[in-house]
Amino acid sequence: MKKQEKTKSGRLRTLLLLDRIMICILAAVMVCAILAFAAVILSSGATAVDGRDLETDPIRIYIDQGHNPAPHHNLGAEGNGLYEQDLTFQIGCMLAELLREDGRFEVCLSRPNESSVLGTDQNSSLQARVDGAAQFEADYFISLHINSFTDASANGIEVHTAGRSGDSYAFGKCLLNGMLDTTGLKSRGMKQSADLYVLKNATMPAVLLEMGFISNQNDAAFLQQHPDLFAKGIYDGIVDHFDASYITHVNMLLCIIAITAVLMTILIIVGNVFLRKIKQKK
Ligand SMILES: [Zn+2]
Fold first, then answer.
1. pLDDT interval class at 268 (50, 70, 90)
2. pTM > 0.85
3. Residue 76 C-alpha to ligand 1 middle, in angstroms?
4. How much distance in Å is there from the Cα of 211 to the middle of ligand 1?
5. What is the per-residue pLDDT across 178-200, written as a single tens digit (0 to 9) for each?
6. What average pLDDT does the chain have?
7. How many C-beta atoms lie closer than 10 Å to residue 237's C-beta?
8. How much distance in Å is there from the Cα of 194 to the middle of ligand 1?
9. Helix ranges restricted to H, the chain
């Protein structure tokens, strides 16, 4: 009889100890979960990508404003009283300002001034853009253009990349979505253009944006009145791309910790209730 009672109180002590250990684990897991969730929330507006601290090592973006100013070579399209090279110059400058204000980016413009001219003919002008980006050691190459077509009804935004996958494609898609959001213009989607000179020869991920049609009355009027919305859309797309890759690469681990922590918490609570029931029975 006494022996039985001793065993019983021994078991009870073990159960009580187990109970305390579980409460301690529960508390630790809850703290981990809160920290992990806080890290996930704070990750928007990330200051690090792939372990790179953007405050000391910013992402370098080369903005090619597409063409040269008149009366030089490599001029852009003309339509509805507007000139492609003037609009792309303006949008490029606005985009550069947004990126510089952000602090996580370093920018190089192909035409820092209205009078800047690249190359001495069509080919050397294109090569000068590719060389400029390489010299700047750009991480990304963005070429700004405006479309033109004989049929004035053609309209909308499209983004060209050399391939249909990889970083250029993912980056281009973010930029397209950014512009669609801010301008509300029609989407013509992502286009594969492996033969476009700058896409073919750039030594870093590269995209070419066709920001509407200068030959279309509505697109042209919109470009003239709201060039800032194209710059803002491209900027938003760039930020989206890096926030998304930050979450994918760095915070994936924290997400897993958070989910595991929640699951463990549930398990421990269920286990605890079960243990109490056993204790009550005893
Ligand atoms: Zn062009």
1. confident
2. no
3. 5
4. 10
5. 999 999 999 999 999 999 999 99
6. 88
7. 25
8. 16
9. 2-42, 84-102, 122-135, 166-183, 197-201, 217-225, 227-249, 251-281
C-beta separation of 268 from 26 below 8 A: yes
How confident is the model at residue 252, as a pLDDT? 63
CA 135 to ligand 1 center in whole angstroms: 23
Q: Which amino acid is it at 40?
A: V
- Cβ count near 267 (within 10 Å): 14
CA 255 to ligand 1 center in whole angstroms: 43
- In this prediction, residues 68-96 reach a mean pLDDT of 96
Q: How many angstroms separate the CA atoms of 59 and 50, rounded?
A: 11
Q: How far is the CA of 271 from the centre of ligand 1 (A)?
A: 66
Distance of CA 101 to the CA centre of its chain: 17
* CA 144 – CA 94 distance, rounded (Å): 12
Distance separating alpha carbons of residues 20 and 2, to the nearest angstrom: 27
**Residue range 54-243, CATH number:** 3.40.630.40
Q: What is the 3-state secondary structure (H, E, C) of 77-111?
A: CEECCEEHHHHHHHHHHHHHHHHHHHCCEEEEECC
Tokens at residue 152, please?
A: 């004035």
- The Å distance, Cα 167 to ligand 1 centre, comes to 23
Lowest mean pLDDT of 60-74, 137-151, 244-258, 259-273, name the range: 244-258
Which of these, 277, 133, 142, lies nearest to 209 by C-alpha position?
142
Ligand 1 centre from 210 Cα, in Å?
8
- Please answer whether residues 12 and 209 qualify as being in contact, where contact means their C-beta atoms are separated by less than 8 angstroms: no
Q: Where are the domains of the chain?
A: 2-47+246-281, 54-243
